Protein: Cytokine-like nuclear factor N-PAC
Organism: Cyclopterus lumpus
Amino acid sequence: MVTVEAWCCGHVLRVVSPPKDLKKPRGKKCHFVKFFGTEDHAWIKVEQLKPYHTHKEEMIKINKGKRFQQAVDAVEDFLKKAKGKEQVWGIILFNSLSVSSQPASSMEPISKRLKIVEEDSGSTSIQAADSTAISGSITPTDKRIGFLGLGLMGSGIVSNLLKMGHVVTVWNRTAEKCDLFIQEGARLGRTPAEVASTCDITFSCVSGPKAARDLVFGPSGVLQGIRPGKCYVEMSTVDPETIIELSQVITSRGGRFLESPVAGSQQLSNDGMLVILSAGDRTVYEDCSSCFQAMGKTSFFLGEAGNAARMMLILNMVQGSFMATIAEGLTLAQATGQSQQTFLDILCQGQMASTFSSMFEDILQGNFKPDYYLKHIQKDLRLAISMGDMANHPTPMAAAANEVYKRAKALDQSDNDMSAVYRAYIH
């Protein structure tokens, strides 16, 4: 089989052989492809393929994200190794991508993925396609959107909501952070209560359980603005007990509640590539469809309120523990006279290769500009360990990692990136 490379809504991909048990969409001449920089797969129509080299510069100008550049680097490296033996193609845009879907389970990807998912394809699936926000083809909801919290994650989310045509009212504890978004077309809310009362769906994305509770129960808080039918979506990473408490108090006022913490970083938030985990009121989840498409690559509905918080803490527990292990490996390599760069080069050639690769390079360069705050990943580890205690389930790896992050915080690394845990090993 000839291997080809392609562009897809700002992504590079190549044709690969599909799994033997995966059916090809009927009546369509298409290739099965794998996206560079991800593990995503999809069926692409043959007529949508364009010469890669012809459109390369055009696509690089359009797509400025770090992830896209990493994909370009990966495909260029692939082509060098191929030594001109592979035929190269590209795809600029596609309006009918057939994506395979996972077997039915309690984790259900959002069903209305713009117009790039063919509902009549009859195909079975491996993974959902990448971000739809880049395509600009989202039909924004006519509901009025409120957003509380313009931190690392919230800022990127609001920016993408505005870009995709949503009507957004913003509020932030530090009011100056709202200025940029007002210039981009957002409206200013004076208090959380005012935002909740004037908007149909209000999102909150703050630092942790205390901030989330204060936003709802505090002076001029969300609770004062909740009326029957108003929707409140908690996007902060908090413990399930906080979520259940917020859900109960919002619904007691006739409001509708959804939790939707996000997996990702500041860069992924800016790129509209977050993964959204939702639980609670399914009808609110459906009402948020265009919002989730604007801010993320995919979203999952996990059932009753509290489940998304549990899943998010588990994911961040693994991510935090992994980063601490990488830091430990880097410093052990240095202590035993091994090249840290060679260690990372080897690591990124094997099964451990991931979106962490660019972060590894930043560590060696001493660049700890926050993409995900160290203090927040330590908070998530602490909450995950507590959740394990409640379930009588051991979490010794997370507990060990948590101690390293606590040491990093003691070394004044709280407001640096989570990768600054590296410094806990060299001081």
